[in-house]
Amino acid sequence: LPEFLDPVLAYLSENLPPPAYSLLISFLSHGLALASALLTLAHSLLFDSSNWNAQTLLPPLIAFLTAYLAILSLYRTTAWIIRTSFWFIKWGSLLAAIAAGAGWMLADGGNALGGRGAANTIAGVVLDMMNGETGKQSRGSRQRKRPKAWDSFEAHRDWQFNEKQAEKDSKNDAQVLMDNILSATGSAITGSNWWGFLSG
Q1: 45 by DSSP, 3-state: which?
Q2: Which residues of 24-57 are buried (b: 16+ CB within 10 A; e: fewer)?
Q3: Each residue of 153-174: pLDDT tens digit?
Q4: Helix (H) or strand (E) segment spanning residue 10
Q5: Which residue has the higher pLDDT, 107 or 40?
Q6: What DSSP string describes 120-163?
Q7: Lower CB count within 10 Å: N or C terminus of the chain?
Q8: Strand, helix or coil at 116?
Q9: Cβ–Cβ < 8 Å for 119, 108
Q10: pLDDT digits over 77-86, tens only?
Q11: How high does pLDDT run on average in the chain?
Q12: Per-domain boundaries in the chain
């Protein structure tokens, strides 16, 4: 680089981080090489037209192409690094948010304190909206309100017993429904002609 740029470069080296300063120096050196090669080529083409030969035209042309390709490579590499970094930041943030949401929904199950968990609460809200007021009334009639912390231990014990009974009843209803479905499916399969053909 020319000597008249030394004060500016000294100031920039003190105030810029080393990678940015190195990038600036390489860009300036390639830019000055490009400009000087272009000026030399233009001078030899315009003012020395009588001396046009390969020895006078090829060196500035090669220097021009080399400097141009170096600057182009520097630009494309830097732009690619920046685009790739933003791509990783964007998709990494999206995948992390999806994973965090899924983990929160799946890990927040019911607990011993009577909490139903986020997934159960959201499912209950959706079912209430689908069932309307009758579903809310029927659900409210089955569940009792949880006693407060200052209530007696007996009230808490009774509430836990009633909640466990309600869970058992709902599980029994589901089991009866599954048994009915399986028996109906079994009778439909055994009553059809293809079952007799396969078994006989």
Answers
A1: helix
A2: ebeebebeebbeebbebbeebeeeeeeeeeeeeb
A3: 788 888 887 887 776 666 566 6
A4: helix 6-15
A5: 40
A6: HHHHHHHHHHHH-HHHHHHHHHHPPPPPPTTS-HHHHHHHHHHH
A7: C
A8: coil
A9: yes
A10: 989 999 999 9
A11: 75
A12: 3-107, 118-199
CA distance 34 to 60: 9
pLDDT for 135: 47
Instruction: Check residue 15 and report its DSSP letter.
Output: H
Segment 22-31 shows an average pLDDT of: 82
What does the alpha-carbon distance between residue 31 and residue 37 come to, in Å, rounded to a whole number? 10
Given a contact cutoff of 8 angstroms between Cβ atoms, the answer to whether 32 and 5 are in contact is: no
CA distance 146 to 32: 80
Does the structure show a pLDDT above 50 at 34? yes
Helices vs. strands in the chain: H and E counts, helices first: 7, 0
In this predicted structure, what is the pLDDT of residue 82? 93
**DSSP 8-class letter at 193:** H
Name the 3-class secondary structure at 11.
Answer: helix
Q: Could you tell me the pTM of the whole model? A: 0.37
| CA 114-175-123 angle, 5° bins | 45
